[in-house]
Amino acid sequence: MGLEKKFSGFVSVRGAREHNLKNVSLEIPRDALVVFTGVSGSGKSSLAFGTLYAEAQRRYLESVSPYARRLFNQMAIPEVDEIEGLPPAVALQQQRGAASTRSSVGSVTTLSNLLRMLYSRAGEYPAGQAIIYAESFSPNTPEGACPECHGLGRVYEVTEKTMVPDDTLTIREKAIAAWPSAWQGQNQRDILTTMGIDIDTPWKDLPKKDRDWILFTEEQPVVPVYSGYSHEEIQRFIKNKRQPDYMGTFTGARRYVRHTFANTQSALMKKRVSQYMISSECPLCHGKRLRQESLAIKFAGYDIADISRLALNKLAIIFSPYASGEAQALKKMATNHPEKVVVAKRIAEDFLARLQVVLDLGLGYLTIERSTPTLSPGELQRLRLATQVRSNLFGVVYVLDEPSAGLHPADTEALLRALDKLKASGNSIFVVEHEIDVIRHADWIIDVGPAAGEKGGHILYSGLPEGLREVTASLTRHYIYDDTTKHKNDPRQPTEWLKLEGVIRNNLSGLNVAFPLGVLTSVTGVSGSGKSTLVSQVLVELVADQLGLQIDISDETGADPLEKTEVTTLGGQIVDGMKGIKRLVVVDQKPIGRTPRSNLATYTGLFDHVRKLFATTPLAKSRKYDAGQFSFNVAKGRCPHCEGEGMVMVELLFLPSVYTPCPTCGGTRYNPKTLEVKYKDKNIAEVLGLTVDEAVNFFDEEPVISRALDVVREVGLGYLRLGQPATELSGGEAQRIKLATELQRAQHGQTLYVLDEPTTGLHPSDVERLMLQLNRLVDAGNTIILVEHDMHVIASSDWVIDIGPGAGDDGGKIVAADIPMNIAKAKHSRTAPYLAKHL
Ligand code: ADP
Ligand code: ADP
Ligand code: ZN
Ligand code: ZN
């Protein structure tokens, strides 16, 4: 076939059976761009990540400590007979569930290190200041951190006013709001009674000396506690040496707040105590986080904090004259410090080269300082990719998960160039993708299917792209080779317009915009143009505010709760159209839960019905088991060891902690007694192990349950197991579960649905099913506003709002707002040429 000539070698897989894979064997070329296609749930990830990447990882771990190996082996030995010719692998997967650690664009790309070196070695120092080391330019080191705020950039104050919001209350009436509310708080009040403080005097009437001590002392006296007695009685008990109830340790309120804030593992606790802290910009460094000596050093006229706040494409402009040696400043440097010129030029060249890849991937609108939790998963994946392109590794397999997510077709072209570069340096690229343009660019296509879950797991095709044309069983083939889908050109008429004026946030400055109600609108534009800012942030917040809802936008970003108040500063208001909206539903890609405790069945409410059903079985009745017995969140019926999680977390030194199946219940989550109860021959754990598709048949006599299951199936999730932990779900799957939960509800109309790229993770055939569901919601009198890149979806929308024209400061304007037919002809719209091809 001549394939041996075309490719340098092959990875040979024999007998892969991971998840739903049907004992498949195949050959995959190395040093090529290989795209894995197929409907959602068909087994693409099980092959690319679960088998190939997992095996490469396992082999790598063979070379590390036996301890780490043992833990990983439980997790990740793929079900496969043999893999030959597999190079080491690097996975660039999008985050699933788990919170990302806090870092910045600069640290992910290593641009920060380079910048620090530059400032240290080639910066302009004030006369007489000695050279300082690169670490002194990092706020995370003792050498660099501002001494006032310890490198945080903000100072946190805990005051009497914040801790005691109502000073007319007594201590017994919980004047000290900052103290814990339950038993611990009672404990503190008892201790104060022993110490002779009157807890029935209004706070404001207590002596200032006592108030200050209670709130601000760092002392932690230990005193005898006799609950429920007066100070006088207690004095007597102590004199008579009566045994106290216990010895209590006092903790001042401020100490409690600070200690909890710094040490708690619970986001909720952290949030609770953060209410009692006021944060303000550090008066010494003004939020720049560095000590003054470090900030005194300049390059190109900027201190390192200021330069880290410039967009990367601006940095490219600043650095290029240094790299080429033409900068005026270099000439000056040559007379005073000739040794610095070479260093400045070298570092600038390196910096620029690394930067260029980031710019090529369409991320020039980011800043060095931007924290990673505020990036979308797609942006983060592309940043990591950019870092890899510059890493000069070769002979590696990169395994990527839908790198086109969040990308406008114009950005996708840049992505493909970056992948080509990685390939050209001698690497293999394995990509799980749905985007037709990426699939068309492949050297080799592996189509998995034909359907999802049990009905998938076969290799329908593995070969050169042209060959897929002949494979009639492939759903992918249809979309690549004979896509004749025609879109309706009779858009619905809006019932009303929701008008926003003077919107200011991120790159939007004073924007006016009108969203049609009663129709489906797509908001389009290149990555970084301002779509999410407008839709997911501003629109959602303003509407929520008008409806009197509390929407916690930044809750899941892992951001410091204290910083939240700052990001919401925005200008803008709704000037018309609110009477057409009674409800707001945001269907986003945030996880439905962060522990294995939440799953599809619990989130959709389905599990309540299932548990009730189990409670009605004869055995359950004879044992007086109620529905709570079958909950893994209640002590009665669950496994005592893992407390119903089915998994136990294992902390690993230097590596992310991992979940492994609970050794006591073997992952079933329940105690043996509970598992004796069966409904139609299955116990509750076995029911949680059913896929949605299987469960539809199993519960066919239970209309409420099977109807709920039907909806989940209609959004393309029939392959998921009922008990599949939230931690195993992708962002797209989580989003579709939310959508299904919503579709189950009775429809009253007048609801505004906001969705951010709902097609992520969806095969074109799944996209069609999704559109069917969304159109049903619109037909029932609701409004849908999508942020979207998929041209099929955009073409079949009723209205399109195109934002741009570029990213960051080059975007943030309404380029065009019209029906799709007219958008396709709009001048200056980067969306227009791509849309035109689909109409
Ligand atoms: P795709 O990548 O094509 O969307 P996957 O490989 O993720 O599909 O899933 C294939 C099948 O394997 C599905 O039925 C899915 O529910 C199942 N599956 C995926 N992850 C797991 C897991 N961690 N444990 C058990 N089954 C899984
Ligand atoms: P899109 O959704 O079109 O990709 P975004 O709305 O995410 O674009 O971004 C628009 C601009 O706002 C970009 O310059 C981006 O860097 C900036 N931006 C977005 N979110 C934040 C944030 N949390 N903090 C600072 N800048 C942000
Ligand atoms: Zn400071
Ligand atoms: Zn257990």
UniProtKB/TrEMBL annotation:
Intracellular or extracellular location(s): Cytoplasm
PROSITE patterns: ABC_TRANSPORTER_1, ABC_TRANSPORTER_2
InterPro entries, A to Z: ABC_transporter-like_ATP-bd, ABC_transporter-like_CS, P-loop_NTPase, UvrA, UvrA_DNA-bd
Name of the protein this chain belongs to: UvrABC system protein A
UniProt keywords, alphabetically: ATP-binding, Cytoplasm, DNA damage, DNA excision, DNA repair, DNA-binding, Excision nuclease, Metal-binding, Nucleotide-binding, Repeat, Zinc, Zinc-finger
Family recorded in the similarity comment: Belongs to the ABC transporter superfamily. UvrA family.
Any Pfam family: UvrA_DNA-bind
Gene for this chain: uvrA
UniProt main location, coarse: cytoplasm
Domain ABC transporter: 498-830
